[in-house]
Amino acid sequence: MLTLLLVIIYIAFISLGLPDSLLGTAWPAAYGELGVAVSMAGFLSAVISCGTIISSLLSSRIIRRFGTGITTTVSVAMTAAALFGISLSNSFWIMFLFAIPLGLGAGSVDAALNNFVALHYKARHMNWLHSFWGVGASAGPVIMSFFLTRGSWRSGYSAIGWIQIALVVILIASLPLWKLVSTGAQTSKGSGKAYSITELIKIKGAKPALVTFFCYCSVEATAGLWGSSFLVLSRGISPETAASWVSLYYFGITFGRFMSGFLTMRINNKKLIRMGLGLIVLGILLIMVPTVDFILLCGFFMIGLGCAPIFPSLLHDTPENFGAEVSQSMMGLQMASAYIGITVMPPLFGLLVQHISMSLMPAYLMVIAIVMIVMVERLNRIKAGKTAS
User: 3-state SS of the chain?
Assistant: First the structure.
């Protein structure tokens, strides 16, 4: 039964990935039609992330009230409705309104499914789960690029909306599975009390963990949101080509997580995270090269490949780092911290672009990556101290 449920969770994670890469790939073609500045993509990204932060923080209470199955199904349905709304938007402010449910639809389901897998499956399944997110995130730019070549970014959003509807049907059919899981209500609705933010932050190791999640998603989201615009405005690539190139970044994440699932059989999460950080730094250095197309492609792929093991490995370590009793509440707070990074850092870069230059992106990513490395090593020292004691 858990195996079948895991398949359903994999399918649900495709739906989480599909919308995440759409805004960045559609924006070079959309902002002129909407009559707004290029930097307004950061504003939309922030609105989506704010909705996700709110639902992440409320996730432990929502899941305890309704269960993981219903929470997942309703969240995907909200996402589908928001995507259709965006596809029909004839102004930036209507697009802004539909960005709110798009964000709210992601937070609770993300925290619920990640915690479920962290508690009940091995590390390889967490990596493969997030590889399925990468399948969706990689497919998003490809689908959008297809419709951009035919002159319609709106059709790209609509197509993803229909895919989400199909996933909603699958999730509705799977609802009885959540009730039949052997651990019953405790598994599907979570366990333990809902801890307050103050209680969680006081736990040893919580602060560096939260900063690490903040930094990771800052790198991933900034590269994903602004990658196409960086290629178009700083490197002179066409919007259609840039969209397909950025899909290689998401393919790097997808392929890397698939391979990480096998690597976890021989390498622990700590080593995988360090390997990922090294690849991110290498990829950033490659996209600093100004004119060579092949090196740019390799750089974006390398950044994606480096991102691959970091997020799932950190998530899978949550019950081990903080205890199973606290893990659902901590998972929600970690996801909220991650989405705060998405909310703050890509828009901040948008402001820097407006006043300085799009060419600043590699240096911006490098600073965040260095902070992440420092926080990961600090968390490792705290974990080592706990183990020794």
Answer: CHHHHHHHHHHHHHHHHHHHCHHHHHHHHHHHHHCCCCCHHHHHHHHHHHHHHHHHHCHHHHHHHHCHHHHHHHHHHHHHHHHHHHHCCCCHHHHHHHHHHHHHHHHHHHHHHHHHHHHHCCHHHHHHHHHHHHHHHHHHHHHHHHHHCCCCHHHHHHHHHHHHHHHHHHHHHHHHHHHHCCCHHHHHHCCCCCCCHHHHHCCCCHHHHHHHHHHHHHHHHHHHHHHHHHHHHHHCCCHHHHHHHHHHHHHHHHHHHHHHHHHCCCCCHHHHHHHHHHHHHHHHHHHCCCCCHHHHHHHHHHHHHHHCCHHHHHHHCHHHHHCHHHHHHHHHHHHHHHHHHHHHHHHHHHHHHHHCCHHHHHHHHHHHHHHHHHHHHHHHHHHHHHHHC
Q: Token pair for residue 230?
A: 């960086």
For the chain, the domains span 2-176+193-388
Query: pLDDT by residue (tens digit) across 164-207?
Result: 998 899 889 888 887 776 454 444 444 456 678 888 898 888 99
SS3 181: coil
Q: Which two tokens stand for residue 279?
A: 């690849």
Nearest to 363 by CA among 281, 291, 302: 281
Average pLDDT across the chain, whole number: 84
- The architecture of the domain spanning 2-176+193-388 is Up-down Bundle (1.20)
pTM more than 0.90: no
CB 51 within 8 A of CB 101: yes
